[in-house]
Design goal:
With about 500 residues, this protein is an alpha/beta fold. It folds into 3 domains: about 110 residues, Rossmann fold; about 180 residues, P-loop containing nucleotide triphosphate hydrolases (Rossmann fold, 3-Layer(aba) Sandwich), CATH 3.40.50; about 160 residues, Helicase, Ruva Protein, domain 3 (Orthogonal Bundle). The protein is built from 20 helices and 16 strands. The strands form 5 sheets. It has a 5-stranded parallel sheet, sandwiched between helices. The protein has a 5-stranded parallel sheet with strand order 9-10-13-8-14. Strand 3, helix 3 and strand 4 form a beta-alpha-beta unit. The protein starts with 8 loop residues before the first strand and ends in a 10-residue tail after the last helix. It binds adenosine-5'-triphosphate. Adenosine-5'-triphosphate binds next to strand 7, helix 7 and helix 15. It is found in: Cytoplasm. It comes from Mariniblastus fucicola. GO terms for molecular function: ATP binding; sequence-specific DNA binding. This is DNA-binding transcriptional regulator NtrC.
């Protein structure tokens, strides 16, 4: 078995054709994913128990067993292990049966590197969401998984609410601005719920175009629309008995809202283009950063669906309203960034902490995490000084505090905004020189990330925070702009969709 470092992910490829395993080994050669291979079902079962892979690629035809039978056994050993079925073009029915039995996805041979890469990375993320424990308020050094930190009264209420609601089989609506920790809450509910041994599937409704979202959720029959050359099993069917997390539910369009309502009320649905009624036993957790009540008033969101989803609501406060949490989170992210980057920044200078505390954190915890990470990348020495913080933080913190009404709030109408580029005006060569002077081992990623952050913030600023217009000017989709804003922790006071 290859050496595996603790943070490494492990993929098991089960196929009797050595060329297939060789292809996977080649594709992930320089990555954090180590590839193990098995040519028979019995070898696969042994490796699943001994090496505990994070995902399995499974050929349906094996010399000593039928792939689908093996899949059933794998499910009994570990029902949360994502399994991707690999089939020849003519095995369509097998792939469908596998999906109905709960396989995560399938790939048709000959495999193409792009879709293989995408499916494997998705499987790893699905596994992470299911098994990475979310511990509440424990930031100790033996941590494995994500911690949810917070000592503020508002977060204490959130922790209590998670405890109250997790073991009840009801829908939960999780509300809060972007980056406040909604996904963490969803995972904590799942992990403490009655369905914790069953799958947890997350779907970001804003990240998938409407037409695809319907078939992603409900599946489709062959010929349901142009391009539907095979029957497809949707996430609701795959998630049978489990928990489905619908992130950004406010972005779901009306026809889909009706279909989802039926799943909640009658526990039934039909695949796109199908007439067979399928029963659905899923617990729905939904999240939104939008003012759903206003969307109900304006007819954009079905009121009956809102009431159904809102069996219980957990509202995450924005970071700027969490007294005491910023210091805890700064310390937590200092430790995690040190571990991740192999740095030894022992403490954060009191001036830097006070600057960070004065900032309004429109991107919430995600933005704070990104700022600390970025500052630690750039720091030399053992103390993080204010000089290593992005200029925007210093600039805003030295100004009088803005009234709360001027910043983005979940229920506010899209209005005025203020999006600022993160870095001071500088030439690209200055930016590169600055990064080079930190002798980082992630120079490429650091520079590209800063350029991306600067570019997107500048264009958004120019477009008055209008994501659609910014996307048009940048030549990328609105979904991509939005996910970059989140990922890069770009501070926006107001997003205009
Ligand atoms: N209380 C917390 N303690 C530690 N880390 C946190 C906390 N809240 C959020 N985070 C971290 O911040 C990042 C963003 O959290 P998460 O994705 O859960 O936010 P979100 O509200 O779902 O965002 P979005 O609406 O943009 O999807 C994650 O890396 C998460 O681990």
């Amino acid at each position: 078995m290859p050496d595996q470092s603790p943070g490494d992910l492990c993929l098991l490829v089960v196929d009797d054709e050595p060329a297939i395993a060789a292809l996977f080994k080649h594709v992930f050669a320089d990555s954090e994913i180590s590839v193990l291979s098995a040519g028979t079902a019995s070898a696969a079962l042994e490796l699943i128990q001994s090496a505990k892979p994070d995902a399995v690629m499974l050929d349906v035809v094996l010399p000593d067993a039928d792939g689908l039978q093996l899949f059933e056994t794998v499910k009994q050993i570990d029902p949360q292990l994502p399994v991707v079925i690999m089939t020849g073009g003519q095995d369509g029915q097998t792939a469908i049966s596998a999906m109905q039995q709960g396989a995560m996805d399938y790939l048709v041979k000959p495999l193409d590197v792009r879709s293989l890469n995408k499916v494997v990375r998705h499987a790893m993320e699905v596994r992470r969401l299911m098994v990475e424990p979310v511990s509440i308020e424990r930031a100790d050094s033996n941590r494995t998984g994500s911690s949810m930190i917070g000592c503020s009264p508002a977060m204490q209420e959130v922790f209590k609410a998670i405890g109250r609601v997790a073991a009840q089989n009801i829908s939960v609506l999780i509300r809060g601005e972007s980056g406040t920790g909604k996904e963490l809450v969803a995972r904590a509910i799942f992990q403490n719920g009655l369905r914790k041994e069953k799958p947890f599937i997350a779907i970001n409704c804003a990240a998938i175009p409407e037409a695809l979202l319907e078939s992603e959720l409900f599946g489709h029959e062959k010929g349901a629309f142009t391009g539907a050359d095979r029957k497809r099993i949707g996430k609701i069917e795959q998630c049978e008995g489990g928990t489905l997390f619908l992130d950004e539910i406010g972005d779901m369009e009306a026809p889909l809202q009706s279909k989802l309502l039926r799943v909640l009320q009658e526990k039934q649905f039909e695949r796109v283009g199908g007439s067979e009624t399928i029963s659905a036993d899923v617990r729905i957790l939904a999240a939104t950063h939008q003012g759903i009540e206003k969307m109900c008033e304006s007819g954009k969101f079905r009121e009956d669906l809102y009431y159904r989803l809102n069996g219980y609501t957990i509202s995450l406060p924005p970071l700027r309203e969490r007294d005491g949490d910023i210091e805890l989170l700064i310390e937590f992210f200092r430790q995690t960034a040190n571990e991740e980057l192999g740095k030894e920044i022992g403490r954060i200078a009191p001036e830097a902490i006070s600057t960070l505390k004065k900032y309004s954190w429109p991107g919430n915890v995600r933005q704070l995490q990104s700022v600390i990470h970025q500052a630690i990348v750039q720091s030399s020495g053992s103390v993080l000084l204010p000089d290593f913080l992005p200029p925007l933080i210093e600039r805003e913190s030295s100004q009088p505090v803005l009234p709360t009404a001027a910043v983005d709030t979940t229920d506010a109408e899209p209005a005025s905004h203020s999006t600022e580029p993160v870095a001071e005006t500088q030439s690209v060569s200055e930016l590169i020189a600055r990064h080079c002077s930190h002798h980082s081992a992630t120079l490429y990623d650091d520079v590209i990330e800063e350029v991306e952050r600067e570019l997107i913030a500048t264009v958004l600023n120019k477009c008055g925070g209008n994501l659609t217009e910014a996307a048009r000017q940048l030549g990328i989709t609105r979904t991509t702009v939005r996910s970059k804003v989140n990922k890069l922790g770009i501070g926006i006071r107001k997003v205009v969709e």
